[in-house]
Amino acid sequence: MVLCFISVLGISRAMVDKYLRIDGINLDLKSDSKEEVIKELYNLLDFNEIINGEECLDAILCREAISSTGIGRGIAIPNAKSSSVLSTQVAMGVSKRGINFGSIDFEDAKIFFLIVSPLRDKGINLSLVNKVAKMMRKEEIRNRILSAKKRNEIIGIIK
Predict the structure, then answer these.
(1) Do 53 and 84 contact (CB within 8 A), yes or no?
(2) Fewest CB within 10 angstroms: 34, 116, 136, 144, which?
(3) Which tens digit of pLDDT belongs to each residue from 72-90?
(4) Is 14 exposed, middle or buried (0-12, 13-18, 19+ CB in 10 A)?
(5) Domain extents for the chain?
């Protein structure tokens, strides 16, 4: 059974780079659909920190089915909490073509942050979503991410 819900508590000072590994970044996503991009990002996660991969992926897709995590300006932040996740993780990707993510501004998403966290981590999921959303409001940051050629550049941009 997959438990889908949205956390309402926040943890201050959650830093995105703390949860994003260099191997969790893909600067050339190949997916053509929302579900495919979620799966492609999901495959960037550290599976040593996930007990049941199918349950975790189902939780992400279930959360997305509740409402789109496309926040506009070419950004999507799919996210979920799951009892299958041992520690919070972030995966990040860029699609050169853009993907229809059902964003509030109807713009295709090009920059994606996938956030998964354990059920026991109160508020970290929402805190990270908020941190990413705030960071991505800045056009300069979005442009730097879209023009990055190497994964280590992304870590420098989001610090």
Answers:
(1) yes
(2) 144
(3) 999 999 999 999 999 999 9
(4) buried
(5) 19-158
